[in-house]
Amino acid sequence: MKDVLLIEDDANEARLIETALARKAGKPYQVERAVGLSEALGILAKASFEIVLLDLSLPDGQGIAVFEQVAQAAPDALIIILSSEDDEETARLAVQNGADDYLVKDQVESHWLPRTLNYLIERKTTRQALTLSEARFRAMSDASPLGIFVSDVHGECIYTNEAYQAISGLSLEQTLGTNWRMAIHPDDRERVLVEWRAAALGKEKFTTKARFLRADGSIVWARLNAAAMLDGLQPRGYVQTVEDITERNAAEDALFEEKERAQVTLNSIGDAVLTTNLPGNVTYLNQVAEMMTGWSCQNAIGRPLSEVFGIVDGTTREVAPNPAQRAISENRTVGLAADSILLRRDGFESAIEDSAAPIHNRDGQVAGAVIVFHDVSESRAMALKMAHLAQHDFLTGLPNRVLLTERLSRAIGQARRHSKRVALMYIDLDYFKHINDSLGHAVGDLLLQMVADRLKLCIRDTDTVCRQGGDEFVILLTEIEHAPDAAPVAEKILAAFTEPCLICGNELHVTLSIGISIYPDDGQDADEVMKNADTAMYHAKANGRNNYQFFTAEMNTLAVRRLFIEGNLRRALKQGEFELYYQPKIDLASGLMIGSEALIRWQDPEYGLIYPNQFVPIAEESGLIVPIGSWVMREACRQVCAWQDSGLLAVPVSVNISAVEFRHKNFLEGVATILKETGMLPSFLELELTESILMHDAKASASVLESLKAMGMQLAIDDFGTGYSSLSYLKRFPINTLKIDQSFVQDIDIDVDDASIVKAMIGMGKSLKQRVIAEGVETEAQLAFLRKLQCDEGQGFLFGHPLPADQFERLLLKEH
User: Fold this and answer.
1) For 815, phi and psi rounded to 5 degrees?
2) Virtual torsion, Cα 676, 682, 686, 689, nearest 10 deg
3) % of the chain beyond a pLDDT of 90
């Protein structure tokens, strides 16, 4: 049997449901989809499903008729109707006609949908178990020593068990369709009938003693008990038990009270049961009652009820009224007051619910009481927990989006009344995906919890920190006077994360990008304020991350531009609009070209040549940098091999690796695959990585670098001097080359500080036995200075601009 058949023509709705079911903890649901009734009926004719999710508005079928056909085709499946808010009436009608339940589409949440299905499956299983239980009960009744006579509302027999047949001397065939009175001795029949009518008139249980006259003339004394089978308030029939008391008739009086107590107790199996006599002393406890009160039955018998069964009001802590005394004095069943707490003998407290009923002797007089109670501590705690979970994030315990929206709307209303402002900070962890990919989700979850704790320390008690989802948090600052009042809070937050986060032995450097929007300056309602804070956050990322930005109207234009570029990037990747340019690297001593750097360009059909600084940041944020980076490496390797195959003296090529690529779980495997598929010699490929990438998680970076080095590749630190490095790690990293950032090179011939820095970098590189290359060499004066410092290599416009492959090939021919 398959898991789920989703009958839904709306692709978006279907995608949401399929995604939700795929995220189920443990084994996800396997979902098969049909977009119309005919297709669904065809699928159901070939396979059976445990669950059918059914939209009643299909292209080839509408309304309750759709359900009836699907129900006929899948009689054993759990059928759940998918309804829109304006068509719930039809969904309810389907439920009345046999559907198991219905869900409103717009209210379906990915977190709760799998749990809802689990619940409905369990409910159906319970119903099936009930049917099996009824069959089992019938078998048990046949094995019972008590005779059982079941009749319809007219008193005519529809079932008797073997014990009844033995007592009456009649077979099942002889009893079916006969009135229950026919087996009673003629002399007792009128009396029993009068008692029966009196009981029925008073809607009471019927019980009496009478003689059965068998066909062979023998007489059996029997005790008859009967009760109506009710459908609401109307009887559907009667169940009569017949006990052969011929041998025990003389002992009936002595056994009456014991039998009454035993019967009530047996009817209460599963709950705690406690009985008292008329003065209120304990006469019996079952095992559950012993556990909950802390008293054994032996020690409790004879003690006052208040000593054994101590209850207090959960709110006031005052002693609660004794339910047994009320049941005795009022001679009726009574319930315990709500929120009652049972005090166990050792002081342990349990929330309980109970009822108490009087016990009668054979004369109908009250002889005591029975209390039936059970522990509801877990169910009450669960109800409170579920209410909390509905409005809080399960991982961090912070308010979730639902509660934030409620508080934001309330804060805006208060600010409007008091002429105040509200600030909303949209916070995103920079490069959090890298941590998840490299260290695992367990470490990622611990980091999110630590971030939540630090954020809470940065705000007032009246403010709210919310986890929006993933690595996004939102802070609500209520009733501020001026928009700039949010800036100190943002600065405090950024400062709080200058210290690394130590998790499972990993020293994680975390930075945040923060977007801030202000009510009423940037929006008149919660949705608009939230959207603009999100836009400002993306602007903070575009400005180098680890900063905060207030929303401005111009950001909307930039946001639209970003979405446009992201969409076009996907097209460019698919349609081959990217191109590699190659810039030569020169040995400064000999002047010979000894390498090249592959630089991506985007040849857009509408906008022409686009440089990487205009689209690479967006590619990194969207994750497209991974397939784009893979293309760059593959194309560079292919081109070098093509030059070598044509007889050219090709030079090694350098490829830039972004942080997203480097932290991707399949990075090493991808590099190895490209080398194998292109036939590229590893020694002809150099990977350039920035200091920030390597130091983000130095231990993990060292491991990846060692693996790359083992493949035979060259490794370089790009933009050296612009990030932060640990000299101890720099010494341990298997680096071949340091590339001095062009920002230090451009003024080395006129700026003493830059000259000193470059000199120190070259000296450090030589001491670490690493080659040093200077980027951005554009003048002869810069070249002369670098040669004087014995810098190994240079790269820049002085030696050559980045060129397309065909033009760079001419340089190779010239060198050759």
Assistant:
1) -65, -40
2) 60
3) 40
Reduced to 3 states (helix: H, G, I; strand: E, B; else coil), residue 784 is: helix
Contact 721, 761 (CB under 8 A): yes
Report DSSP state, residue 320: P
Asked whether 626 and 661 are in contact (CB, 8 A), the reply is: yes
729: tokens are: 């790690």
Cα 575 to Cα 559: distance, rounded to the nearest angstrom:
24
- Length of the chain in terms of residues written: 816
Closest to 704 (Cα-Cα) out of 429, 432, 439? 439
Token representation of residue 98: 């046999």
Instruction: Give how far Cα 428 sits from Cα of 55, 548, 557, Å.
Output: 38, 11, 21
Are 276 and 358 in contact, with CB atoms under 8 Å apart? Answer: no
Distance from CA of residue 514 to its chain's centroid? 26
pLDDT score, position 803: 95
Does residue 734 have a cis peptide bond before it, meaning omega lies within 30 degrees of 0?
no
Pairing of strands 340-343, 310-313: antiparallel
| 406-459 per-position pLDDT tens digit | 999 999 999 899 889 999 999 999 888 878 877 888 999 999 999 999 999 999
Task: Please enumerate in sequence order all residues whose Cβ is within 8 A of that of 523, keeping only pairs 6 or more positions apart, or say none.
Answer: 517, 529, 530, 531, 532
* Cβ neighbour number for residue 510 with a 10 Å cutoff: 22
> Is the distance from CB of 335 to CB of 320 less than 8 angstroms?
no
The answer, yes or no, to whether residue 266 has pLDDT greater than 60, is no
Both structure tokens of 289: 């009652």
Q: Which of 560, 554, 566 is CA-nearest to residue 615?
A: 566
- For the entire predicted model, the pTM comes to 0.42
In degrees and rounded to multiples of 5, residue 778 shows phi and psi of -125, -15
How many CB atoms within 10 Å of residue 527?
12
Spell out a b/e string for 433-442, using b for 16 or more CB atoms within 10 Å of the CB, else e.
bbbbbbbeee
- Kindly state the tokens that stand for 333: 């069943």
pLDDT in tens, 313-339: 888 888 888 888 889 999 999 988 778
- Phi/psi at 565 (5° precision): -65, -45
Q: Torsion angle, CA of 179/181/184/190, rounded to 10 degrees?
A: -150
Would you tell me how many other CB atoms lie within 10 Å of the CB of residue 598? 25
Determine the Cα–Cα distance for residues 524 and 665; give it in Å rounded to an integer: 43
Handedness of CA 454, 460, 466, 472 (dihedral sign): negative
* Interior angle at CA 146, CA 144 and CA 148, nearest 5: 95
Token reading at 376: 């509801």
First to last CA, the chain: 69
* Residue (of 330, 260, 347) closest to 321 by Cα position: 330
H/E stretch holding 157 reads strand 157-160
Backbone angles phi, psi at 97, to 5 degrees: -90, 5
